[in-house]
């Protein structure tokens, strides 16, 4: 197997040497030689034919190491003009199906020389990825997005104008992937990767990407609102004020006994699913909602439905016990302060029913 890899690398070496080679006269009179457009076209076609023959000669096992060696040679090329020729030839190979798009993208992203300090190689690599990523299947795009986000995290926020070209290059690729019209990857999967990557790193990527990422995440807020219900009460002192946009169940009405008002019996949190950008208050324990329902007459069935409790079995529910204790204490305090209201059958008396 090792012999095969060396043989493949040897072919790549010969091809790259052919592209980079300049005769002694060409080097001596480099500033005086002017190539016509026709000459350039002939040279380009010769290189393209050589590239086609080279990649066609590789087996399926030889192609990945050969391509990796090709990219490595590009990164070590001192001449930017020659490096761009090699990149254009690689693009030609992808366009004409000599090399798979996904393999090229993965090879470029895995190259050790792909660091933002290496400006030209970085920019040319992401420019090529942006051109050919449309030919990658959605699973491949998702894997590439993970690596690209890691690369974006590698650029420190303190770097500003000095690395603006590198930032624009990687931002262009992210914009292409995030664009719903290109249909490269389902948007929810992009959101999933973005929200998993950012908290895992403990910090947000460079400020250059903040608007792009935040706008994309915010575009899912209407979806998050559709699949959740704002069932929260704003508590201010001893008074309970219900916001205009807040929804509360009508206790005793059959339509409210669905899954909309379900709460976790341990934490009293709403069972939200997925990594949608839910409102912060939706992620907190909904003890205010549970207490509101408990305060209503004939709320037993509603409470059991909300917490998933069975009336036929004896179950302990710490969240429910805690709210019942608080409700009893509250009723006792109000009874002491409103003795006359209790005698007249006022609202305080309903708390004991």
Going by helix content, strand content and strand pairing, the class is mainly alpha
Question: Topology as H/E string?
Answer: HHHHHHHHHHHHEEHHHHH
How big a fraction of the residues is strand? under 5%
Q: Tell me about the biggest sheet?
A: 2 strands, antiparallel
N/C terminus separation:
82 Å
**Care to count the β-strands?**
2
Rg over CA atoms: 32 Å
Number of helices: 17
Could you state the oligomeric state of the chains shown?
A: single chain
Fraction of helical residues: 55-70%
Shape: elongated
Low-confidence stretches: 1-5, 231-245
Mean pLDDT: 80
- Strand line-up across the major sheet: 1-2
Description:
This is Mediator of RNA polymerase II transcription subunit 23. Pfam families: Med23. It comes from Stegodyphus mimosarum. Belongs to the Mediator complex subunit 23 family. The model is unreliable at 1-5 and 231-245 (pLDDT under 50). 24% of the residues are buried. A hairpin with a 2-residue loop joins strand 1 and strand 2. Helix 13 (287-295) crosses helix 15. The chain has helices spanning 2-20, 24-28, 37-56, 63-75, 80-95, 101-110, 119-132, 138-153, 164-178, 187-201, 210-218, 221-226, 287-295, 300-307, 318-337, 339-343, 347-350; strands at 234-236, 239-241. The termini are far apart. By secondary structure, it is mostly helical. The chain has a domain at 242-337 and 346-352. It has a two-stranded antiparallel sheet with strand order 1-2.
């Amino acid at each position: 197997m090792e012999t095969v890899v060396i043989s493949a690398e040897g072919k790549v070496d010969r091809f790259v040497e052919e592209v980079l080679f300049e005769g002694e006269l060409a080097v001596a009179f480099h500033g005086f030689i002017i190539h016509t457009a026709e000459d350039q076209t002939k040279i380009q076609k010769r290189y393209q034919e050589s590239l086609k023959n080279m990649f066609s000669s590789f087996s399926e096992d030889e192609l990945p190491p050969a391509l990796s060696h090709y990219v490595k040679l590009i990164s070590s090329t001192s001449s930017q003009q020659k490096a761009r020729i090699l990149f254009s030839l690689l693009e030609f190979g992808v366009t004409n199906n000599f090399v798979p798009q996904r393999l090229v993208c993965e090879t470029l992203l895995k190259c050790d020389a792909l660091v933002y300090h290496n400006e030209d190689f970085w920019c040319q690599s992401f420019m090529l990825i942006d051109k050919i990523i449309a030919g990658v299947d959605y699973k491949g795009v998702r894997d590439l997005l993970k690596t690209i986000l890691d690369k974006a995290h590698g650029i420190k926020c303190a770097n500003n104008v000095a690395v603006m070209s590198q930032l624009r290059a990687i931002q262009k690729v992210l914009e292409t992937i995030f664009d719903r019209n290109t249909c490269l990857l389902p948007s929810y999967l992009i959101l999933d990767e973005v929200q998993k990557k950012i908290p895992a790193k403990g910090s947000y990527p460079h400020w250059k990407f903040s608007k792009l990422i935040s706008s994309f995440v915010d575009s899912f807020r209407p979806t998050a609102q559709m699949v959740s219900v704002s069932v929260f009460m704003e508590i201010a002192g001893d008074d309970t004020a219900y916001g205009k946009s807040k929804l509360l169940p009508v206790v005793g009405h059959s339509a409210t006994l669905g899954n909309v008002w379900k709460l976790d019996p341990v934490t009293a949190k709403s069972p939200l699913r997925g990594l949608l950008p839910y409102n912060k208050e939706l992620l907190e324990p909904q003890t205010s909602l549970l207490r509101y329902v408990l305060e209503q007459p004939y709320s037993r069935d509603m409470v059991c439905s909300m917490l998933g409790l069975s009336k036929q079995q004896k179950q302990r529910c710490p969240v429910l016990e805690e709210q019942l204790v608080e409700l009893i204490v509250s009723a006792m305090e109000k009874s002491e302060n409103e003795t006359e209201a209790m005698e007249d059958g006022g609202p305080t008396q309903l708390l004991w029913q």
